[in-house]
Amino acid sequence: MKSKYIYSFSASSFLLLAGALLAQREGGAFSNLPEIFSGTTQTKGGTVSIDRNARFKPKEVLVKFKENAGESVKTYAASSLGGRIAENLSHNGLSKVALPEGKSIEEAVQEYSNHPDVEFAQPNYVYHTTGTPNDALFTTLWGLKNTGQTIVSGTYNPSTAPSNNPGSSGSDMDAVNAWDVNHDCTNTVVAVVDTGANYNHVDLNANIWTSGSCVSETGASLGACPYGGWDYVDGDNSPMDLNGHGTHVTGTIAAVGSNTIGTTGLCWTAQLMPVRALDDWGSGYTADIVKGINFAVRNGAKVVNLSLGGPSYDPALRSAIALAGINQDVLFVVAAGNETSNLASKNSFPCKFPEANILCVAALDQAYSLASFSNFDTSSVWVDIGAPGTNIRSTWAGREVSDSGTNFATWTTSSNNTASSKSIWTYAPQGSCFSNFSALYLSINCSDGAGGEIVNGYLNNITTTAYKTYTYLSGMDRVHASFYLFLDTEPLYDVFSLNYSNSAGLPSFSGTVLDSYAGEMNGNYAYLQYQLPNCTGSSTNCSFGFKFNSNSSIAKAGIVIAGFEFSALDVDDTAQYNILNGTSMATPHVAGLAALLRSFNPKFTYQDTIDAIVSGGRTTSSLQGKTKYGKAADANGALRFLKAPSSLTLVAP
């Protein structure tokens, strides 16, 4: 494999600044719908501005053609600009366009935005990865019933605030009293557009929606959907979760209640529709998320959970959400984000879309303080309400084997020259070079290697390796490795390579070369992620390692590896649970409540549902001045606050 020549490293990702007017959400009709496209259409004849902090998929853009543009018009428009229609994403003119070699995203967005048959063009953005039952783990679900219990193995531990574990008795959604009114959500299909879900999980399987005649995002017949939804990452009818996030979210909404095992969701019984739009790293593109939303809406979902977010204004995503509300009365419950940002001045989408059918959720800890990581909003416009979001136990995708790399001392190292520390990999424990990570370095010392400003950090004419063999039970469905890389070597000649194999021992001898690098990052770093497919299936070993070869001239600063993580997942173990933190975990608490409300009376609109959640919410001091309503979602309060549906009329006998 060719080595990669790195002149300097910086994030090759961008954000289209659409300049849209983000009006305050109103409770009524979508009077501001035309603004969805205003940010892009106003660039006609002007210059598109690109922010280089966001991420998007290379070599393609999303183009929204005008309503009267047929297939021939779209094909001609794309070909006239050197591209081609790769895929139609919806029935209303949104298409994915493949770009010719050498054309930048910025150039393509500019050209298509100025085309007379186009409403807007944008990058394909990246999003990341929010009655008492007899379930065995119910006592750990503090968000549903908080008795002041301590969550054993809780992972929420902020550096600048108390963890509030244990928390405050009564700081919960009062679900137990709500369940006296309703715990059945089978009248409402709830879609989770995420990393998928382990639909075979013992606490989910009975609540998974299925269909013998589902349709695609464009309305085409797909035949049967026996596993609950669709997979827009791999393009099939099996939205199996290879990450865990989506399974966790799904369980908070509707893990089977009162079945003597595991946890319970807000809904004990439900119709859960997992849609896989994020990959096994927890990342996904606008195109797949939009298709996932359109699939869910066309197949009857009335509540959609989006525990995802990104920093970029995204008219394609906004349009999908808006049209779902206008045409199908769909409510979207979305995460506020985990950047500790004030959304009065910072961005997190879809939370900051102004559509009335969006409810944006912040995270609360066990004492109902705002979680240290949660985004908030002092303008009281965008973040609507709070819900439990720390130390949340829920269903998990399967059995995991993981290693966070906190002890590189267990790795095996070798070199053809052991006389100098500059010729063999050296271990730096956590705190000695990086506060949060241990490190492995080949340099005079770890700090100089990461800084990239010295010379002769390593010796010439060396071959040095470092690796570790992981042993586990066979049957793994996903195996990953990831780490941060600081690199400063002689371009072209001093080569750092990554290798792995499905056998024990040094992988550079018998394994696969994943990548090779040589060059200068100038003190910057790359975060690298690799799938290790040869280590899945019947394999019981997986060896991962690094190899470095230098030639006889010019030695640079060296190499530093930090934050290494190895992870393997077996989805056949269907009785696993996990504890997570995030607005991603808060969001499904509210989505589950929305499903309870809409199932209790299916005539309720999305606006009736929002009104009940807000009016029945609990005034919470930590949310005052930080959210629109200053309230935490309260299941009992919402169910008992239900007003008559707005669409009903009295007919005299």
Automatic annotation (TrEMBL):
<feature type="domain" description="Peptidase S8/S53">
    <location>
        <begin position="574"/>
        <end position="614"/>
    </location>
</feature>
<keyword id="KW-0732">Signal</keyword>
<dbReference type="GO" id="GO:0006508">
    <property type="term" value="P:proteolysis"/>
</dbReference>
<feature type="active site" description="Charge relay system">
    <location>
        <position position="194"/>
    </location>
</feature>
<dbReference type="Pfam" id="PF22148">
    <property type="entry name" value="Fervidolysin_NPro-like"/>
</dbReference>
<feature type="active site" description="Charge relay system">
    <location>
        <position position="245"/>
    </location>
</feature>
<feature type="compositionally biased region" description="Polar residues">
    <location>
        <begin position="153"/>
        <end position="171"/>
    </location>
</feature>
<feature type="active site" description="Charge relay system">
    <location>
        <position position="584"/>
    </location>
</feature>
<feature type="domain" description="Peptidase S8/S53">
    <location>
        <begin position="187"/>
        <end position="430"/>
    </location>
</feature>
<dbReference type="InterPro" id="IPR023828">
    <property type="entry name" value="Peptidase_S8_Ser-AS"/>
</dbReference>
<dbReference type="InterPro" id="IPR050131">
    <property type="entry name" value="Peptidase_S8_subtilisin-like"/>
</dbReference>
<dbReference type="GO" id="GO:0004252">
    <property type="term" value="F:serine-type endopeptidase activity"/>
</dbReference>
<keyword id="KW-0378">Hydrolase</keyword>
<dbReference type="InterPro" id="IPR054399">
    <property type="entry name" value="Fervidolysin-like_N_prodom"/>
</dbReference>
<dbReference type="Pfam" id="PF00082">
    <property type="entry name" value="Peptidase_S8"/>
</dbReference>
<comment type="similarity">
    <text>Belongs to the peptidase S8 family.</text>
</comment>
<dbReference type="InterPro" id="IPR015500">
    <property type="entry name" value="Peptidase_S8_subtilisin-rel"/>
</dbReference>
<dbReference type="InterPro" id="IPR036852">
    <property type="entry name" value="Peptidase_S8/S53_dom_sf"/>
</dbReference>
<feature type="domain" description="Fervidolysin-like N-terminal prodomain">
    <location>
        <begin position="51"/>
        <end position="124"/>
    </location>
</feature>
<keyword id="KW-0720">Serine protease</keyword>
<feature type="region of interest" description="Disordered">
    <location>
        <begin position="153"/>
        <end position="173"/>
    </location>
</feature>
<protein>
    <submittedName>
        <fullName>Peptidase S8</fullName>
    </submittedName>
</protein>
<dbReference type="InterPro" id="IPR022398">
    <property type="entry name" value="Peptidase_S8_His-AS"/>
</dbReference>
<keyword id="KW-0645">Protease</keyword>
<feature type="signal peptide">
    <location>
        <begin position="1"/>
        <end position="23"/>
    </location>
</feature>
<dbReference type="InterPro" id="IPR000209">
    <property type="entry name" value="Peptidase_S8/S53_dom"/>
</dbReference>
